[in-house]
Amino acid sequence: MEGIFKTKNKRLSGTRYEDVYDQAFGLYDKIKKLTKRRPYIRSTYFKKQKVFVEVFRQHLYQKNWRDRARRMRFFPAGIELIKESNLPPKSSDNPNSPNETLHKFTGKTADGCLFYVQIKENKRNGEKTLLSIFPGNE
Length: 138
Prior knowledge:
Elements: E1 4-6, H1 17-33, E2 40-43, E3 49-52, H2 54-60, H3 65-72, H4 75-84, E4 90-93, E5 100-108, E6 114-122, E7 128-135
Parallel strand pairs: 1-5, 3-7
Antiparallel strand pairs: 2-3, 4-5, 5-6, 6-7
Helix pairs in contact: 1-3
C-alpha cells in the first residue's frame, strides 16, 4: 500500500507557461550544474541510487502549453518527493516494454494539492528515469 508524501514545497505561482518556466527550470539548471554528464538526483526510497531527470524535460515538450505549465508547477515538489520519500510507490510492469517497471509515487504539496511522480526502472541494468510529474484530481 502506497502512502502520500507531504512536501514542504508549494506549487509554483502562475498559470501561464512563461510565468512558471523560469522558476521550474532554474531548479533544473541547478541540478544540471552538479554533474558534467546526465543530470540526476539521488532517491531515498531507492537507497540513494541515481534517478536521471533529463527525460522529464523532453516529455514536457510533447505536451501543449497549458499542460506544460500545469505540470511544471509541481516540479520542485516532485524533486523533493524523489529525494526524501521513504514511502513505497505503486509499482507495475510497463505494458509497452516487458523489461521496465513503472513506479508511481503520490505526494501532496504544502498548499494541499495532490500530485504524482512517475519513475521508470530498467530491469536489466537498474537505471531509473523520471518520466513525469503531474497533478492529481483538482
